[in-house]
Amino acid sequence: MNNVKKSSGVVPLVVGKNILLGLQHLLAMYAGDILVPLLVDASLHFNATQMMYLVSTDIFMCGIATLLQLKRTALTGIALPIVLGSAVEYLASMTAIGNNLGWGYMYGGILIAGVFVLLISGLFANLRRFFPPVVTGSLITLIGFTLIPVAFQNLGGGDVTAHSFGNLNALILGGLTAIIILVFEIFGWGFIKQITILIGILAMTLLAGILGQIDLASVNTASWLQLPQPFYLATPKFEWSSIFTMLLAALTCMIESTGVYFALADITGTTLSTADLKRGYRAEGLAAILGGVANTFPYSTFSQNVGIVQLSGIKKLKPVYYAAVMLLILGLIPKVGAMATLIPKPVLGGAMLIMFGMVGAQGIKMLAKVELNTNNLIIIAVSLGMGLGATTQPTIFQYLPNTVQIILSNGMVIGCITAIILNVLLNRNKLS
After folding, report:
1. Separation CA 181–CA 296 (nearest Å)
2. Predicted TM-score (pTM) of this structure
3. Residue 412 in this model has a pLDDT that exceeds 60
4. Contact status, residue 57 vs residue 294, Cβ threshold 8 Å
5. CA end-to-end span of the chain, whole Å?
6. Distance between CA atoms of 224 and 101, rounded to whole angstroms?
7. Which residues are within 8 A (CB) of 157 and not within 5 positions of it... i.e. 6 or more apart?
8. Burial level of 337, CB count in 10 A (0-12/13-18/19+)?
9. How many secondary structure helices (H) and strands (E) does the chain include?
10. Quick one: residue 318, left, alpha or beta (phi over 0 = left, psi -120 to 50 = alpha)?
11. 226 close to 56: Cβ distance less than 8 angstroms
């Protein structure tokens, strides 16, 4: 009888902890995800009704995509603590196609890209021998460090062209967010140390609200219910040049996802097999297909959530399942989902600074296990240099063809390609 009483009290406590851990994952990725529909709208100019559908359904589809990746089946699911969101790598291609050819061709390209990822998942997974620790460590370091400018952009207020960018209020909010997280990391205990990101974000959002820096208009105007509808915005159409640019973006996503997979595998102590990688790629391919049908976006892994897994020390899947369910709920109830948009960008920037830095540190940790001979040092130095250079100065490629720019302007991709090529040339005797 005593055992029953004890267990009945423990279960709600465990569920409550998992909900908080899941909420931490959700808040970390939420702003980054809704940024994609906002940027697409800035170019394609959806009306208010279409935009409400796009944002709500996108959040709902993030939940679906995350569940596809979490649950291991015979065909899909890498079963690592991964959160999926709108793939920003497709943004340039989507807006260009939508403006020049129409929304239908944009969604047709998304559908074909998803099918493409499904079809080549086996081939791509079999290339794992080209991703030894020196390559994956370099890529994961790049994933973290190339995102630091994004953190600083949010820290300053989000819009670098605005006169208010970098104002004192923004710096105080963002700086205090980072300080709170660090204080709880240093002096916290038990479960508190596992939710430091959540504590920092919620505490400073509350302070911003008290100071009158939060606008509730988005919550007031949002509806109570929004259901996904197939082909709500446009019926898919197909054209070869638009498809080709989408396929390039798909390959970019697969390369980046590979780095995230290996980072999480290293953190969780998991050995990834070729079959695991296949299921991971297939899950993202299927998510892109569903995004095309629902008229949203392709979906891929979110790097900031890797930092949360590292910081919290929680490597289980259950909190991410809770995050996925919360995404589904938020997507169906736009008024509730709009509340998550109230988090000030500087607050997110302060949290991102630590999360992205932790991703980069995880890459350095992997590189520390690599034999640092001359060949490997060259691979690390040149790939990091290319990746960081392309990130800070992407306009250096502005006179090249658009399809080439899509690849070269992405620092993570050009850094990874450089690392792979140099590894083949310098360590070819170790390739099996």
Report:
1. 34
2. 0.72
3. yes
4. yes
5. 60
6. 34
7. 164, 165, 166, 167, 170, 345, 346
8. buried
9. 18, 2
10. alpha
11. yes
